[in-house]
Design brief:
By secondary structure, this protein is mainly α. Helices cover 60% and strands 2% of the residues. It is built from nine helices and two strands, in the order ββααααααααα. Strands 1-2 form a two-stranded antiparallel sheet. A hairpin with a 6-residue loop joins strand 1 and strand 2. Helix 1 runs parallel beside helix 3, helix 2 packs across helix 6 and helix 5 packs antiparallel against helix 7. The longest helix has 23 residues. The radius of gyration is 17 Å and the shape is globular. 44% of the residues are buried.
């Protein structure tokens, strides 16, 4: 990622020569990672997997990788957070990150990343933190369009049973992410956001997501602006109109 020093816009550079031949997944190098960064980077990987899975450009392979990543994250992130010296949990989280990376590299991400990149470029908000804060908000905004896919993720994550109705399972998955955020001390706001910046931020997010990302529900810049108000003020303080 490169950030334009003048516009504060983040650009991703992609090319086949940049694809590594090998990935070294050594859990020992992550043992000293502080709990909060363990949580936010873990939820960053979760966002990669979820956005790759719910998008409109998936393959059998990317869906399989995304499901495995979600399963590993839900099974290991709390242990890695509370017991950073647990090598097995660290190893499983690295594997989850790898599988999620394989999924989104081919199937792309969505509006969670587009909004997070705009915040990272403008305010240097850590990417994993931004994704963690934004993820449940965008999943709720997509509505029933993604409920069937979220239900599958919920079953894979172990937060819903096989016979749980689709809409209920989808809601349980989103709630599980909210609960995860709460356990890790991750809030619902990005206090750095300035109201005067919101039109520009929404423009950047719109420009990144469309047509690059195969999002489940297409939105324009004006439709993205309310999310920034929600992130600035918190959902409880927002009247739903962006004011």
């Amino acid at each position: 990622m490169i950030t334009d020093a003048e516009t504060r816009y983040k650009y991703a550079i992609n090319d086949f020569p940049l694809i590594p031949r090998y990935a070294v997944l050594d859990p020992k190098v992550t043992l000293s990672l502080p709990p909060f960064i363990t949580a936010t980077t873990g939820m960053d990987a979760l966002t990669h997997a979820v956005e790759a899975y719910i998008g409109n450009s998936t393959t059998y392979g990317t869906r399989k990788d995304a499901l495995l990543a979600v399963k590993l994250i839900f099974e290991n992130i709390d242990t890695a957070y509370t017991d950073g010296s647990n090598v097995e949990a660290r190893r499983n989280m690295l594997h989850a990150s790898f599988y999620a990376g394989c999924a989104f590299t081919k199937s792309y991400v969505g509006y969670v990343h587009a909004i997070a990149h705009s915040l990272g470029g403008e305010y240097n908000v850590p990417h994993g933190l931004a994704n963690a804060v934004i993820l449940p908000m965008i999943l709720e905004a997509y509505g029933k369009t993604i409920h069937k896919k979220l239900a599958r993720l919920a079953r894979e994550a172990g937060v819903a049973d096989a016979d749980t109705p689709v809409d209920e399972a989808a809601a349980q998955f989103i709630q599980a992410i909210k609960d995860m955020k709460k356990r890790f001390g991750i809030g619902d706001t990005i206090p750095e956001i300035r109201e005067t910046d919101i039109p520009k931020l929404a423009h950047y997010a719109d420009k990144e997501a469309n047509p690059l990302y195969p999002v489940p529900v297409l939105m324009n810049a004006s439709e993205l602006e309310p999310f920034y108000y929600m992130l600035m003020k918190g959902e409880d303080e927002n009247d739903g109109t962006g004011n």
